[in-house]
Design goal:
Helix 4 (106-112) crosses helix 5. The protein has 6 helices and 7 strands; from the N terminus they run E-E-E-H-E-H-H-E-H-H-E-H-E. It has helices at 35-45, 59-70, 86-96, 106-112, 118-126, 153-166; strands at 3-12, 15-21, 26-31, 49-53, 102-105, 139-140, 170-171. Strand 1 and strand 2 form a beta hairpin.
């Protein structure tokens, strides 16, 4: 029996977002204003699955995710189904361990992984399909400046600003 991947759209103050869920948990949370193109990419991304719209089925998850976007530090209690290479999943797990309101840099993550090459870390972070809940927005450049974010620098700045307003913000 083929796996079923359901998707649905929500709206937040940071724009429209799509959640994609397997039976195990969330496989993607992405901001996009291009619904058609984003939806058309799903069967390519999940070739072994039946991809179906699930707006009604995912209404509870959409609300939990929207609240997590709007309220920094809120744990929506949504299970994640992290899909990537073992290295990517390890990097994404490290991202999830960065406390809300704190940041780190690419080099520091690379050092924790026992490598001096932060390019591999940067590539793994760029492949992260789950915005906000796998907080890649908390990774900045060594000099403290904000660099690339898959869903736009404006969103990254706003996510960091929200965390700063909600409590202490510090560089680790």
């Amino acid at each position: 029996m083929r796996e079923i991947i359901r998707f649905a759209w929500g709206i937040s103050s940071l724009g429209e977002f799509m959640v994609t869920r397997s039976d195990k948990g969330l496989v993607a949370l992405e901001f996009s204003s291009r619904r058609s193109a984003t939806e058309q990419a799903l069967p390519v991304r999940f070739p072994e699955a039946d991809v179906v719209a699930g707006q009604e089925d995912l209404i509870d998850i959409l609300e939990k995710v929207r609240r997590a976007i709007e309220e920094p530090g809120l744990d929506p209690g949504v299970p994640l189904d992290l899909r990537g290479t073992p290295y990517e999943v390890e990097v994404w797990s490290m991202l999830r361990a960065i406390p809300m309101g704190e940041t780190t840099n690419y080099g520091a993550l690379a050092a924790k992984l026992g490598t001096r090459d932060d390019r591999e870390v940067t590539e793994a972070i760029a492949c992260n399909p789950i915005a906000v809940l796998v907080p890649c927005h908390r990774v900045i450049k060594k000099d403290g400046s904000i660099s690339g974010y898959r869903w736009g620098l404006k969103r990254k700045r706003e996510l960091l600003a929200r965390e700063q307003r909600s409590g202490a913000f510090q560089l680790v």
